[in-house]
Amino acid sequence: MKKRNVFLTAAIAAGLMMSALAMSVSAAQITEEDAKAIALENAGVKDEDVAYIYAKPDKEDRQIVFDVKFNTKANEEYEYEILADTGKILEIDYEREFFSNTTGNAGKETTLEQAQETALSHAGTTADKVTFVKRETDYDDGRLVYELEFYTDAYQKYEYDIDAKNGQIIAWSYEAADASLR
Length: 182
What we know:
The protein has 182 residues and is of the alpha+beta class. The chain has three helices and eight strands, in the order ααββββαββββ. It has an eight-stranded antiparallel sheet, with helices on one face.
């Protein structure tokens, strides 16, 4: 009888600990509104500059994520994938729908090296901390662009399309390290 009571007491204690752990895990998850706020803050976009925004939960690599998409009044499109249990940004895609034909550098075309520096600066890293896997020119909607792709030493992937005429970032994307490393 004593063994039975000890076992029952231990089982109840284990059950209480598991339910407390489950509550703390679910309490740590972000909401759709939190996901929207994280995306807007990361993009540096204010609420009043947003034309449209939505967030929906999804499952990616056996993890719950929020897919957040929004457009700005300046015709920029952002897409985010945010981990629900921590709020960590796993992916970002950006595209400028309509971009300026003005030259940003007094009529001189941007060189590939300048485009690389623009991309590295935007990513917050330096050339010695990345490995470029793609550096080429291409035409996009009749416009010459530099297409760049690189990985950081922390296994983060970045891709950029930069206008060769004025050095503007037309599109860019970010992916956190492989899911097994997240």
